[in-house]
Fold:
Amino acid sequence: MSFIQKHITHRDWRGFVLPVGFLVIWTAVTAAGWVNTKLIVPPSDVIAAAYKYFTSGTFFSGLGASLGRDLAGFVLGSLVGVAFGSLVGLSRWANRLAGPTFHTLKHISLFAWLPLISTWLGQGDGAKIFFVALSAFYPVALGTIEGVQGVARAQVEVARVYAFNARQLLFKLVLPAASPQIIAGLHLALIYAWLATIGSEYLLAKSGPGLGDAVIQGKTAFNVGLVVFGMLLVGLIGYALNRIALRAEARVLRWRGRAS
Amino acid sequence: MTAASSIEKAPPPLPTSLPAPGLRLSTLRITALAGDFVKRFGLAATGLILPLLLLALWQHAASQHWIAEQLLPPPALVWQSLVELWGSGDLRSHIAVSLSRIGWSFLIGGSVGLALGFAMGLSRQLKAYLFPTFEVVAQFPVVGWIPLLIIFFGIGEALKISAISIAIVVPIVINTYKGIANIPNALLDVARVYRFDLPQVIARVVVPAALPSLFNGLRQGVMQAWLSLVFVELLAASEGIGYLMVWGRQLLQLDLVVVGMIAVGAIGVLLDVSLRLVEARLQRWRKVAF
Structure:
């Protein structure tokens, strides 16, 4: 990740050439009428659509609904993922029993679960949160298994000498020792959870609140301004979530000291 | 620390194919093989317990009509649909459509991604212009693009190819760029001593040194492509595996949905395994320590 940090510390003007140039060309081309402005709308349309969406009151309820589903699914999936991963990582029998099934099912591409989930749980919040939780479960479980299995034998022996009971062993040794991999899994899970939130809102679009629902409605009404704005918003939230995760990761893992 | 633990470590067990004289050799080897077989078979068998239990539960739930048959098709029906769809060629044609979409997108997205990654890796100037924008856009969720793409391209083949290509480009660019940026300077110094020109440096130093990272990108790209393929076929398609599932869902024939899931999973495994094989083959020259 060092290349990202390097890039933050010396931000030079050359990075702005591309986006600013793009904006200028976009404005010029639409103003001159060289393109079909119904299809490629001028930036002012996007701003107008954004303003209308902001003031209509559906913006904050939609944003809240999406982020709420994202968070609920993320927390649920992560908790189950850590529990499952610890079990499979620690117990050889659990690994033999559940490992092959887990590693086979993870090959089913995420969205392929959605038709089945929507048949069973409907198109409401329940189905969406379950789906988001499923998307968060896999990376967290994988990270936890990897981390737990990588705990050094010598450390476990020290814990034996100190006569740790099972709970102390889990919370004082195994989980902290596995935390780098678990946190890497949580980071991935955050990215996948947002993808799954938006994806499920697109596929199970109802007239309910949600960013994805709003974008789909905009698409149906051919409101290109709203679609572009929604897409930008979805993207920037994804970017922000990733940023927060990077910060949190660095902070939580500070006890390890610098790598080099 | 490592030295101490290696001293205390118990001596390794004697290899089972110990060259013992005469008759004993073959009996030893046979018992070892048999033991190995039983062990492996036993491991595989324990892995089968859970799926078999689930299958039994599924069968039981279906035969007792705990849940309506429309919502939970019995396993036999799923199997029958799978065999019928495969036999009639329907399933194969859906798979072929999906795979050809992956192939085209891989060709387009892969070449664009490699070109961008190499350009940014080799030229500091280009990187300064392109990377900041790329880094932000790369973190947009893939599916976020799709409504906009639908407006531009409609719901035809162009939509699928463009959406999947975008999904492929991002991991390939990032991994290519990182692979090149992380090449140790010493390697490039040696190339300079040998007075390699640019094509030589690329072919003999940059590509081999960046290959592991490159393959990482390819694998992530294929997985992302598979993810977004299923998504875009669920959202808007008239053929392909995703369409088969949507169709089954609309007719409330969940056996078709489950058949689709089986196909998606099987192809996911196949893609993963074949990429691993290619990677192992291309990297045979690399003598790894571990």
Q: What stands out?
A: The first helix of chain B runs from residue 2 to 8.
